[in-house]
Amino acid sequence: MAGSRYQYVKTFELPDPILPGTFMVLRIDGHAFHRLSEVHKFAKPNDERALQLMDHAARDVMNEYKDIVLAFGESDEYSFLFRKSTALYNRRQAKIVTTLTSLFTSSYVFNWSKYLPDTPLEYPPSFDGRIVVYPSQKEIRDYFSWRQADTHINNLYNTIFWALVQQGGETTTQAHATLRGTVSGTKNEMLHSRFGINYNTIPARYRKGSVLVQERVCASCAPSTQLPPASSDDLASIATETQGTPQQPEQAPSGSSRQKASKKAHALTKIELHHCDIIGDEFWDQRPYLLAE
């Protein structure tokens, strides 16, 4: 930047580096999406097209920023986990939040017509973003458990709520009153007895959310497997109880260090979409690299 007598104004800018050696999670949320879903007549309780559009926007972010190793999406939100050692934008919080939230938003708008071709976009949707810093693997595991448990709780409520409205003839006010104070077991029983719906047969996307993960694809890595689904009771129980790293400059490698570098170079990844349990240990045990340095 060219020097001038006005350059002193830069001294008013505050540095905002994120603490090194910690995990970063960026959560992006739709702003006023209740109105957006009403104006564009999203299907209730879940609109498959809108959820696929969210997945597309999240994948675009992960394709652009390789230090994101995991993302979890539900409804109008997505959470992104960065590699612990990431030095993206020198870990400047505002730069990361604004740039990635902007990319997510622009991808959402750009790809709208691919997923909702018969629904013109009536006005520009927007998203907000925030970064939360966590000290250890435990908090990261608990964070994503919290988000998936929240997915189950919200989806169970919305499923029975809209069944009462669409099939039971109740108004939205009456449906809210019917469900006030009910627990998950009561909601499940109501779904089955009144509407013949077995909650566990509802598509896993709606019950468990979307999991985008950088899967290892090198020959020496075990192939990814679809994980067995956790039951809605398991998720409800947990919810109740809890209510691009840049490569460092390498010294001249030799011997075993050369072999390690070669193996690392071949440890390629690809982004895979799952709708699986991430509360239990199996998902994480199969992918220890997600929480590594």
UniProtKB/TrEMBL annotation:
Q: Where does GTP bind?
A: 29-34, 75-76
Name the residues that bind Mg(2+) 1: 29-30, 76
Q: Where is this region: Disordered?
A: 240-266
On the tree of life, the source organism's domain of life is Eukaryota
Q: Which UniProt keywords apply?
A: GTP-binding, Magnesium, Metal-binding, Nucleotide-binding, Nucleotidyltransferase, Transferase, tRNA processing
List the biased-composition ranges (Low complexity): 240-253
| Catalytic reaction(s) noted | a 5'-end ribonucleotide-tRNA(His) + GTP + ATP + H2O = a 5'-end phospho-guanosine-ribonucleotide-tRNA(His) + AMP + 2 diphosphate + H(+)
MF annotations from Gene Ontology: GTP binding; magnesium ion binding; tRNA guanylyltransferase activity
Please give the cofactor(s) recorded in the UniProt entry for this protein: Mg(2+)
Q: Where does Mg(2+) 2 bind?
A: 29, 76
Write down how the cofactor binds this protein: Binds 2 magnesium ions per subunit.
Q: Which GO terms describe its biological process?
A: tRNA modification
In short, the EC number is 2.7.7.79
Residues in tRNAHis guanylyltransferase catalytic domain copies: 6-135
Q: What does this protein do?
A: Adds a GMP to the 5'-end of tRNA(His) after transcription and RNase P cleavage.
Which family, according to the similarity comment? Answer: Belongs to the tRNA(His) guanylyltransferase family.
Q: What is this protein called?
A: tRNA(His) guanylyltransferase
Instruction: Tell me the classification of the organism that encodes this protein.
Output: Eukaryota, Fungi, Dikarya, Basidiomycota, Agaricomycotina
